[in-house]
Amino acid sequence: MHNVSRNKNADLDRVLRAATRVFLERGFSATSMSDLVAATGMNRAGLYAAFGSKHQLYITALGRYREDTEPELRSVAHRALERKDGEPVDAPQAVADLLDVVARHSKEGGFVVRAAVELADDPATMRRVQEAWTELERDLAAILARAVERGEMDPGTEPERLARTVLVFIQGALVVGHADEDDHRLADASAGLAALLAAYRPSATADEIRSQAADDALLNES
Questions:
Q1: How many angstroms separate the Cα of 154 from the Cα of each of 78, 148, 204?
Q2: Are 178 and 107 in contact (CB under 8 A)?
């Protein structure tokens, strides 16, 4: 009995992955049930029985896409956040690492951003899109806030606002990476964003002033 259940789940997983590829290639509106039948090998009645509708299959495929891609993004964020005291967070490098992941997935089309564009008026789709954006924005803000706490970024930096800037950049990067044949455009833009973040590092002059102030305090104590 358990083997039958496992086999059924494995078959549905295969069907879902095939459907996800079709939706990535064609989008929701341009994908017909005939396309899904051809791609998945499951007949129309079976698809309706398993998923209820094309729309529900799309929503499920979007969820599966997130399950497959977001752990890699979270892993990059967690590596930066789990650095021990004394180890630099290096927010610009963490963001650069995130952009490397984005660049790889942009060739697939970026399911989340495509869903936001095509089905912006669909509450079920946008709820999942907003969840994805919120989670990434939260991780970015946490990295930037940690960098500010450790003195790696200017104390006047607003982590939440800067995180939102990076988030919007990433969504655009997914579009450009998918549509543009010139890989250098995305690479150059990513380098520009890294330079922007690096500009938030405290200036050498500010560091020298703080160091001198600390020395003066020691002298006064003695």
A1: 22, 6, 11
A2: yes
